[in-house]
Each structure stands twice: as structure tokens, then as C-alpha cells.
Amino acid sequence: MSEPDRPELLVPRELFGGAWADYVDVFGDFAELAIDFARLDPRTPTRGVLVARVAASRWCILKLHQELTKRVE
């Protein structure tokens, strides 16, 4: 089965720079999960600010796993 064509994504100007994260927390189950990305305070690493929360479907979870595995090998 071949991968479907990648959709053309419109990136709003305010998201061009992305968000820096040095901490991640994953919660949920295999059907769907949420991923919190945070930036920790370098002076107080026990405190941080959430920079993005992504809720993902099962398909997205599997695709993310596949892509990360390819890049690590």
C-alpha cells in the first residue's frame, strides 16, 4: 500500500517560527493521545510553560512512530 500524497499545508504567519520545547509529556491510550510540549525555565527547571498541546488520532500516532523510527535507524 503506497502512502497517499502529502496534502499542501497552509502555515499561518504566526506559526512560521515554530515553538521551542525541551520537555514532553504524553498521556492517553493507543486509540488517541495528547502530547504536551513545554519549555522549561533554565533558572528553575522544575517550572515551565506549555508551548503546544497536540491531540492525535490513532493514525497520527502510528505515522509519528513510523517517521521517528526511520530517523533513528
Q: How would you portray this structure in words?
A:
- With 73 residues, this protein is of the alpha+beta class.
- It has one domain (20-72).
- The protein has one helix and three strands; from the N terminus they run βββα.
- It has one helix at residues 58-72; strands spanning 23-28, 32-40, 48-57.
- Strands 1-2-3 form a three-stranded antiparallel sheet.
- A hairpin with a 7-residue loop joins β2 and β3.
- The radius of gyration is 15 Å and the shape is globular.
- The protein starts with 22 loop residues before the first strand and ends with a helix.
For the structure shown, list the relevant keywords.
alpha+beta, globular, 73 residues, 21% helix, 3 strands, three-stranded antiparallel beta sheet, single chain
Helix content: 10-25%
- Uncertain runs with pLDDT below 50, 5 residues or more? none
Number of domains: 1
- Shape from CA axes? globular
Instruction: Say how many strands there are.
Output: 3
Individual helix count:
1
Order of helices and strands: EEEH
The average pLDDT is: 90
CA radius of gyration:
15 Å
What's the short story on this structure?
The chain has 73 residues and is α+β, with helices and mostly antiparallel strands. Helices cover 21% and strands 34% of the residues. It has one domain (20-72).
